Fold this protein.
Amino acid sequence: QVQLVESGGGSVQAGGSLGLSCGAPGGSIMIYVMGWFRQAPGKERELVASINKRSTSTWYTDSVKGRFTISRDNAQNALYLQMNDLKPEDTAVYYCAGGRAFYHDTVYTHSRNYAAWGQGTQVTVSS
């Protein structure tokens, strides 16, 4: 599986913005459906957003719709998550993940489909 490395986490006040990046040093994300997950203390890991291989289809969990944007640049082997209007409940460790897919229009919405994972980056939103 491709190695994934997240960056861009940090602390911000409610209403602020942060951008996360995920790289694949030495590898390629072109064959992967990509997603951003998050896990808050004491809670299960949840899928935040997913994007298909050609960036023609995306999926967002309801709580981030209209505030977060997932994107990818296959030429740069990079995945992004732009987070606007952040809320304290967005506080979590954010992980990027990739899952192999045969079809270009596939979007995965369950963690079992993702085999490659990054180490996570902390996002803290204060009220």
Summary: The first strand starts at residue 5 and ends at 7. The mean pLDDT is 96.
